[in-house]
Write a structure and sequence with these properties.
Helix content is 54%, strand content 10%. A hairpin with a 2-residue loop joins strand 4 (150-151) and strand 5 (154-155). Helix 4 (84-94) runs parallel beside helix 5 (104-120), helix 4 packs across helix 6 and helix 10 (218-228) packs parallel to helix 12. The chain has 2 domains: 26-188, Rossmann fold (3-Layer(aba) Sandwich), CATH 3.40.50; 194-272 and 306-330, no CATH class. It contains 14 helices and 7 strands. GO terms for molecular function: ATP hydrolysis activity. InterPro entries: AAA+_ATPase (IPR003593), AAA_22 (IPR049945), ExeA_AAA_ATPase_DNA-bind (IPR052026), P-loop_NTPase (IPR027417), XrtA-assoc_ATPase-like (IPR017466).
Length: 344
C-alpha cells in the first residue's frame, strides 16, 4: 500500500472513527465542550446533531477514550431503530444488568437496582445513543423516563443523543416539551471550512507519522474542500484515494491535476448518483423513435454511460498496475532477503 511510499506508520484516512485522529475544529470543540459540561453537571440531556459524516461518532469515541473518571460507567448504543421495550432490553444488555424476567416491569426494576448499586459505589451511568434520529418519539420519551431514576435528589443515569438533522424535528415536536426541558445543552456540527480542511488533513498526516506538509499545495487543499464540501468522511475517502493514486503514479506531491483526475474517477462515489435523470426511474418509458428530441436524449444518455464505463475500465487498469507493482516490490524484498541469507 502507499504507507511505506509516503513514510506513514499507518493509514491516516481510515473510515473507522479513531480518537487518536480526532481533529477539533471550532464546531467539534464546542460540541465536545458541551458533552464535557454535561458530564460535569451529571444531569439532563446533551444533544449533538449534524449532517452525515461530520464526525458525531468520532466525538463520542473521543469523549469515552478520555474520560479518565472511574466513577462513570458508560455504554454506547448504535442500533437505534428500537421500540421502547427494545431500548430497555438493549440498555440491560450493554450495561450487563441481570434481570429476573423479560417484561417491561422486570427490565425497569433491574435497571433501577443496577443504578442504585452504582450510586452506593459512588458511581453513575452514562448512556450514549448514536444515530438517535432513528428513534421513534415514544422511544425518546422512554429515555426521558429513565432519567427520572433519582436518589438523594441526584439523577442516576445521564444520556447523550447523537444524530443527524432529523433528530431536531423529533425533539421539536409538540409532544416532546417535557423532553426539551431536560436538555441542558445542544450543538450542531457543520462541515469544515477551507482553512479547517487543510488543518484536518495535515493533522491526520502528522498523526500517521508524516510531517510532509508539502504533500498538497495550497490550491490542492482548496480543491479538496470543493470536491468534498468539507465533510470529514468524504475527505477521508477522497484523500485516501489520492494517496493511492500518488503511489501508483509515483508522485512526490499531489497537485491539482491529480486531484481533478481522481475526482473525475470518483464522481459516482462522491455524488451518490449517476446524475442522469433518465436512468433514475425503474419504470419502462415509451420511446418515440421518430422524435429527434428523444433520439438526441438517448444519445446523450449513451454518451454518459460510455464515459462511466470508460472510467471504470481506467480504474481497473490502475488497480492492475498497483497489484503488479506490489508483486514486484515483494519480489525485490524476497531477493534481497535471500541474498543476505546466502552472504551470512
Amino acid at each position: 500500500m502507499y504507507e511505506s511510499y509516503y513514510g506513514f506508520k499507518e493509514r491516516p484516512f481510515q473510515l473507522s472513527p479513531d480518537p487518536k485522529f480526532f481533529f477539533a475544529s471550532s464546531h467539534h470543540q464546542r460540541a465536545l465542550s458541551y458533552l464535557q459540561y454535561g458530564l460535569d453537571q451529571g444531569e439532563g440531556f446533551i444533544v449533538v446533531t449534524g449532517p452525515i459524516g461530520t464526525g458525531k461518532t468520532t466525538i463520542a469515541r473521543n469523549l469515552l477514550s478520555n474520560l479518565g473518571d472511574s466513577s462513570i460507567v458508560a455504554a454506547q448504543l448504535v442500533t437505534t431503530k428500537l421500540s421502547p421495550h427494545e431500548l430497555l432490553e438493549l440498555v440491560v444488555s450493554e450495561f450487563n444488568i441481570s434481570v429476573t424476567g423479560a417484561s417491561k416491569a422486570d427490565l425497569l426494576q433491574g435497571i433501577e437496582q443496577f443504578l442504585i448499586q452504582l450510586h452506593q459505589q459512588g458511581k453513575r451511568a452514562l448512556l450514549i445513543v448514536d444515530e438517535a434520529q432513528n428513534l421513534p418519539s415514544e422511544t425518546v420519551e422512554e429515555l426521558r423516563m429513565l432519567s427520572n431514576f433519582q436518589l438523594d435528589n441526584k439523577p442516576l443515569i445521564q444520556s447523550f443523543l447523537l444524530g443527524q438533522e432529523e433528530l431536531k424535528a423529533i425533539i421539536q415536536a409538540p409532544n416532546m416539551e417535557q423532553f426539551r426541558q431536560r436538555i441542558i445543552a445542544s450543538a450542531h456540527l457543520k462541515p469544515l471550512s477551507k482553512a479547517d480542511v487543510q488543518k484536518y488533513i495535515n493533522h491526520r498526516l502528522q498523526q500517521a507519522g508524516c510531517n510532509r506538509e508539502s504533500l498538497f499545495s495550497e490550491a490542492g487543499f482548496d480543491l479538496i474542500h470543493e470536491k468534498t464540501l468539507g465533510v470529514p468522511r468524504k475527505i477521508n475517502i477522497f484523500v485516501d484515494r489520492l494517496l493511492l493514486f500518488g503511489f501508483l503514479e509515483e508522485l512526490d506531491s499531489i497537485d491539482s491535476a491529480a486531484i481533478n483526475e481522481v475526482a473525475q474517477e470518483m464522481e459516482v462515489e462522491l455524488t451518490g448518483s449517476l446524475n442522469v435523470a433518465e436512468l433514475a426511474s425503474n419504470e419502462p418509458s415509451q420511446v418515440v423513435v421518430n422524435s429527434t428530441e428523444k433520439v438526441e436524449s438517448i444519445k446523450e444518455i449513451l454518451r454518459e454511460v460510455e464515459e462511466i464505463l470508460d472510467t471504470n475500465i481506467k480504474q481497473k487498469i490502475k488497480m492492475a498496475r498497483y497489484v503488479d507493482k506490489m508483486l514486484k516490490h515483494k519480489s525485490r524484498i524476497y531477493t534481497n532477503t535471500s541474498s543476505t541469507s546466502e552472504d551470512n
